[in-house]
Amino acid sequence: MTSRNDASEVIAFEQVSVVREGRALLAEVDWVVHDHERWVVFGPNGAGKTTLLQVASSYLAPTRGEVRLLGGQRGSVDVRDLREYVGYVGSGPAALVRPYLSALKIVVTGKHAAFVDSHWYEYAEADWEAALDHLKRFAASHLADRAYGTLSAGEQQRVLIARSLMASPRLLLLDEAATSLDLGAREELIASLEDFAADPTSPSVVLVTHHVEEIPRGFSHMMILADAKVVAMGSISEVLTADVLSASFEIPLQLEVVEGRYRAWHSRAISDFYSDDPI
Exposed, middle or buried: residue 259 (CB in 10 Å: 0-12, 13-18, 19+)? Predict the structure, then answer.
C-alpha cells in the first residue's frame, strides 16, 4: 500500500470485504489507484467486479476493511462531498436518465450529478460549451439535439460517459461499458476510450469487463477477480496470460495480442476443428 500522505492516491482499499447473507461478494482486497492511471478490472460473471466498483464509488459500504477515496477515509468524511469528483457510468445511474431529454441536456446535468431536467439548475454558456466538448471527445456531438431515448445502446453509452466528465472528476468508473453493444458500436466506444486514455490530462479510469476483446489500447493496469478474490494484479502485460485466464474461468483458454488488442478462445476449439478423429 502507498503512504496515507500520497497526494496522487485516488482509491485505496485495505483488506476490503463485502459480505451479504454469509456470502463474500468481495474478499480481503488490497488495491491502490493513482492519478491518471488506466485500470481494467477483469473476471468472470459473479467475480465481484461490480461490487468493487460500487465500493470505489462510495455508494456501497464495505463490511470490513478500510477505503480511502480521493484522500478521504470512509467513515471520517461525508462521501457526498467526494462524489462530484467521481464519474460513475453503470446500469444503476443509467436507469435514472430521462429518455425525453436531449443528449446535450443529459450531459450538462452531470455538472450537479443530477438526473432531472436541466431547468432545475442554472447553467452558464460555458457549461453548455463544455457539454458539447465532452460529446465531441466521444464522437457524439452529432447527437446533441437527439432525445436520449431514440439513441442506440452504443450512442447512449457515449453520452453517459461524456456526462460523467462534466464535474471534472479525478476518477472515472465504467461498469461493463460495452455490454449489449454490437461489434460496430463496441469498436467505436473502444476507440473513444483509447483516445481518452492517451490524453495525459484525463482523470484516472477504472474499466470493468469480462471480455479481453474490450480492453482498449493505452490501459496499463489490471486486477483479475474470481470468486470474490484477487487472482492477479499489476501491469496488463504481466498479469494477463493464458494460464491466469484459464484458472479464472476454469476452462483451458488461449490468448493472443494483435496490434495491442487481445483475443481469447477455448483451446479445444481449434484442436477439435482440426481433429482427424471420425465424427
Answer: exposed
Cell 482499499 identifies what position?
A: 13
Cell of 270: 481449434
Residue 229, domain CATH: 3.40.50.300
User: How far is the C-alpha of 63 from the C-alpha of 26, rounded, in Å?
Assistant: 9
The separation between the first and the last C-alpha atoms of the chain, rounded to the nearest angstrom, is 55
pLDDT in tens, 83-125: 778 888 877 677 778 889 999 999 998 887 766 565 667 888 9
Total domains, the chain: 1
The verdict on residue 279 lying in a domain is: no
Residue pointed to by grid coordinates 462524489:
83
Considering the domain boundaries, does residue 278 fall inside one? no
- Provide the residue range defining the domain that includes 132: 9-273
Q: Could you tell me the CA-to-CA distances from 46 to 15, 79, 132, 209, 217 in Å, in that order?
A: 19, 26, 37, 12, 25
Residue 3 lies in a domain: no
